[in-house]
Amino acid sequence: MPLYDCMLLLKPTVERVALMDLVAQVGRHVYHKNGVITDIKSFGRTFLGYAIKKRDGRFYKGQLMQMTMMVPPSFNKELHYLNKEDRLLRWLLVKHKNTVYGLDFMNDDDGKHNLLNYPKSGLYNMKDRDEDDEDDDEDEEEYVEVTEETK
């Protein structure tokens, strides 16, 4: 199943209880489609770049929520009930590209992620590290000489 981000922009007057009710409603739809919600973020109240006109006025602020979920590709058609939702200003469903998850990720393993392919000596070679430390000592001596000359 691909990974999607569902962005929900709600009216600034919506209370937190109603906001959580809407998020739970979307979560139930995800669950009924055998999907998984991986992350929920709230960005709080944000100023909009332009006013959004609705039946009950113009809105210059909104409450922004992001839900990350793994659902089947047909899920986009399931969310069109959000168009009639009075609490929402806008909603958007964005698909993550070029990401592989689940069994597809496990089957594509061609050994490139195997830790045994890397050298056992580690990331740092102690011999190289000692040489770098000597260079640092020389830099410090030069600094001391320069500061004494300036006094």
TrEMBL record:
GO terms for cellular component: cytoplasm; ribosome. GO terms for biological process: translation. Residues 122-151 are annotated as: Disordered. Residues 130-151 have a biased composition (Acidic residues). InterPro entries: Ribosomal_bS6, Ribosomal_bS6_sf, Transl_elong_EF1B/ribsomal_bS6. One of its GO terms (molecular function) is structural constituent of ribosome. It comes from the Eukaryota. PANTHER family: MITOCHONDRIAL 28S RIBOSOMAL PROTEIN S6, SMALL RIBOSOMAL SUBUNIT PROTEIN BS6M. Belongs to the bacterial ribosomal protein bS6 family. This is Ribosomal protein S6.
